[in-house]
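Section 3.1 - Work completed
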Amino acid sequence: MPQIIEFPDRPYIGVRGTITMTTFGLVADRIGEIIGWLAERGAHSAGAPFLRYESVDLAADRLVVQAGVPVAAPLEGEGDLFAAVLPAGRYATVTHHGHPDQLFGVVEALLKWGEEQGLAWDMTEKDGAEHWGCRLELFQTDPRVQPDLHEWDTGLQFRLA
């Protein structure tokens, strides 16, 4: 059952890419690189790595997505890694246990639940694309510890307007 949770600003280091539904790896696969980059600087993640959806245009199969790793204190970015902040606010959240392939249905259910609750998302539509203030998919399972995708926990956090 979804919940509404209030979050403070959360600093992170991220990388951005424009991808299609089949090229997620171009962005998502860089999470390990970000974690390594942090470790080289004596920093480490302060929470679950995530994908942040900035813009979603399913008709054109074009998504602008960030891969990010939360940090305890803000750091300077380097190269195409940048420092940013997940904005404070109220988020509708739900956790999915199972294969990430099933997330599409979980996202649909969360959006429908929000509609039924009369909630407004931090999202604007323009030229057929959804532009999100903060829409997150958090990887709560470490694949090195649990390689079975069917046992993964993935959190969704969608910011409310």
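Second construct:
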Amino acid sequence: MPMNESERYTDVVAALAGVEAEVSAAEAQGMLCGLFCSTETPEPAQWIAQVLDGLSPKGEPAREVLEALSALYQDTRDRLENDSLEFEPLLPDDDAPLSDRATALGHWCEGFLFGIGVAGSHDPVKLPREANEVINDLTEIARIDPEAELDEDNEIAYTELVEYLRAATLLVREHTALPSSAQPAVGGDRADPDVLH
């Protein structure tokens, strides 16, 4: 039975903690999604090496982190390549404190921007305006204030930003990895990256 999002997140967090990785679970998946915004499908080993850069895990922790990251790679790839738009950013459960979720959201965006840089896809001249706007928005969201107070407005803003990330990832990937597609698969209003400041 496949893992749900919450179990996947907990699993990856625990595996990364086991090898004292500096990259968070959210940042690791963000990086992977950025790498997928390329005409070349990223190699799992290339991404795992970047996530574990500078580490030499051994024994059981090494096995666990490789298993968790390999499973995350496969799950993310399946969802990104699935036409039914099942992709979800890997973030803490909604029961987690808003500060934790906001921090993870910022890390996810940082990872994505790093990944798209490594993939070499972010050439503003070649990308359409919508994709460039998305990348600029993610740069703003990466600077999110994790100390935002828990109130209904910020909770709604967080939910909107997560939905925006989901749509934005699919939009950028469409223009970079799938340039033959004529029509964007996702639309909707642009989120305001300043809402949680």
